Amino acid sequence: MLAGLAAGALALFPAAGMGASAGSPPASASGDGWRLGVAEVPAPQAPGAKVRTPVRIEVLAGQLGEGGAPLQAVAAGQAAQQLAEDALDAWVGVWPEESASLPAGVRAVALGWSAAPMAIMRTDTDIHAWSDLSGRTVCLSADGRSGGELAARFGAIEQIYASATDALLALRIGQCDAAVQDEDFLRQLLTFPEWKKFSAQLAPYRTQKLTRLLRDDLPASLKAAVRRATSQERLRELARQQARDIAFEVYLDQTVPDCH
């Protein structure tokens, strides 16, 4: 039976290739490609450590982008100015609405990716509203976007894990009552049949979209590469593989130890 489960999982997840590559710098990180700013850059994966796929889609867009995009950690409030000063070519992330005024030569485009906080739970949960999280445990990842907010807003008990894989595994084995991540990532994850028992949802209580900031004076070839790497179609493609890889990482950690 276990052999059958493993074979079925491998059929569902033919490779966890993104996770392996996502933990390493892009091949052309020497500077030949465009320079991408994101709010947080993942630490390099330690030799021999378990593969963990980043949950922020903009990180994957840079690491796996056309031409290579050396990632630079740049806070949202500093992104526009660094672009104007030629320290960056592009920046992707949640851009504060109060920063709507842009320097000359910098353009903002909404990417259509929902980074709004969404929760998933076991289908037999008694949590039916965000307010029900008061005094309940919520699994979050260190590279997620909701740390501190759920405790302050709803009185939830936040448990922070090193990665989305670890946070979702904790949900599956009963260490928390809910897990919260970007809406569009979780909706993709829930397309896999093994997540059917964890498909109870709390829809986002606020909207939050990703935005791309881009320098107007970039050469046309680089500008086209940035647009392709961060297009809505490309983000959806990355999200499908990202969800597949993270689901496979959860499967390995939950199922393989049970085989021994």
TrEMBL record:
Per its UniProt entry, which superkingdom is the organism in? Bacteria
Protein name per UniProt: Transporter substrate-binding domain-containing protein
Give the species: Castellaniella ginsengisoli
